[in-house]
Design brief:
Length: 283
């Protein structure tokens, strides 16, 4: 019978656990090292905050908005200006006075009112576009009416003129025949009768030619009268179209740019005047 070794028990390993409080403390220290407290952040000096404020006001005063409607950017722009002033006022190295507060408040209220008026004007652009479209349709109807009446008139007069031209051509043929008989060797008809016939044909030819001239003159006069009549109808509609086009062009231009520039210049002046008053005060 063979000998078997007794089973060995697994050896227990000893683990060392760090205290929970110590781990949390190290984690807090690492986080504190990466993100300093607010008190540790450096506060801008008076010169730094002044330069930064004037620079940002200059940028905002020259800011251009991309596309119409420009009023969509007004609220964001106002908030940016107010944020610049709030940061300037909150700096402990500044210490604003009541006059500065009054000047900036007045300027902000003024530009807000102006931008509100511009926004209201911009909201009318859709109505202006609709009115412009209606005026163009009206003008097109007038042009169509003129073209139809002018075509009808021209057709009637041209028909009359063609008829007269055909008659004149036939009369000329008759006259040529009489003249040939007059110069021929055989005079089967009496001279007096031929002369009377020739006179009658010439009179008839003259009458038809006069009628043709009158028909052509009447066509020109009728065309001119019709054109003048429709020009009188077109003129007020064309003026409306110009008016609406001008309004739309004015609305589609950023009318706030100059107003916003003046506002930022006024705010920058308020900052500079405040600094002058502050420097003039005795320490």
């Amino acid at each position: 019978m063979g000998y078997s070794h007794p089973p060995t028990k697994p050896r227990r390993t000893i683990r060392q656990y760090k205290p929970l409080r110590e781990a949390k403390e190290k984690k807090r220290l690492r986080r504190g090292y990466a993100q300093p407290n607010e008190e540790e952040r450096q506060i801008p000096s008076e010169q730094e905050i002044v330069q930064d404020t004037l620079k940002r006001l200059h940028i905002l005063g020259n800011q251009k908005f991309g596309v119409f409607p420009y009023s969509e950017h007004f609220d964001r722009w106002i908030k940016s200006v107010e944020a610049v002033l709030a940061e300037f006022v909150a700096n402990p190295n500044i210490g604003i006075d009541d006059e500065f507060t009054q000047e900036t408040t007045l300027t902000l209220n003024s530009i807000k009112t102006t931008l509100d008026l511009i926004q209201r004007r911009e909201t009318t652009v859709n109505q202006e576009v609709y009115s412009l479209s209606e005026a163009k349709v009206k003008l097109q109807k007038i042009n169509n009416q003129y073209a139809a009446q002018a075509s009808t008139m021209r057709g009637q007069k041209n028909s009359e003129i063609r008829h007269l031209n055909r008659e004149i051509a036939l009369i000329k043929q008759q006259l040529d025949g009489v003249i040939k008989q007059k110069t021929g060797f055989l005079h089967l008809r009496s001279k007096k009768k031929r002369e009377q016939e020739e006179i009658s044909i010439v009179e008839d030819l003259t009458n038809r030619q006069n009628e043709l001239e009158l028909a052509i003159m009447d066509l020109k006069q009728s065309q001119r009268a019709l054109r003048e009549e429709f020009d009188r109808k077109r003129e007020p509609v064309a003026e409306e179209i110009k008016k609406y086009q001008k309004r739309i062009e004015e609305l589609e231009v950023d009318g706030s740019l100059e107003e916003r520039w003046f506002a930022c210049e006024a705010l920058a002046d308020a900052v500079n005047m405040f600094l002058q008053r502050k420097a003039a005060k005795p320490n």
